[in-house]
Design goal:
two-stranded antiparallel ribbon; alpha+beta
Length: about 140
């Protein structure tokens, strides 16, 4: 499980140091793709296979399925960690997430989310977490 929040910077070439706790779980090769809410989703190779299987099983005659598939699959890139623990974030993903320099890597159970620091702060300014928790409990998610 991925958890925790790490602040880093992206270098001039678009490389990011992958936090060692995440690197241990990801391995040397993993998948990055466009994420929801303007971030980048990072999946281990094993988790990506599960995601691919879900798309294979989804009804391809559904326009919404095809649109979501295009969003995630066409934006995906296989990435490798170099000897210094860095990974190059592809330019199209940096653009999607508005990443210029400061970023936040956040564990999100089965994936990592990479955010521009400004967007991360904007997305986490809410005061209705109790209401959200109640709505999630109605969907069967209790903590």
């Amino acid at each position: 499980m991925f958890m925790g929040e790490y602040n880093h910077t992206v270098d001039a070439k678009g490389r990011l140091i992958v936090p060692s706790k995440f690197r241990d779980q990801l391995g040397n090769e993993f998948v990055m793709t466009r994420g929801l809410d303007g971030c980048i989703f990072v999946y281990s190779s094993e988790e990506w296979k599960i995601t691919e299987a879900k798309f294979r099983e989804a009804p391809q005659f559904s326009k919404k399925v095809r649109q979501l598939e295009r969003f995630f699959i066409t934006g995906a890139a296989v990435c490798e960690v170099d000897k210094q623990g860095r990974v190059l974030i592809p330019p199209h993903l940096r653009e999607h997430a508005g990443i210029e320099k400061e970023i936040v890597s956040a564990g999100a159970v089965n994936r990592i989310e990479i955010w521009s620091k400004d967007r991360w702060q904007d997305m986490n300014e809410f005061d209705d977490v109790e209401e959200i928790a109640e709505q999630m409990a109605d969907l069967g998610l209790t903590i």
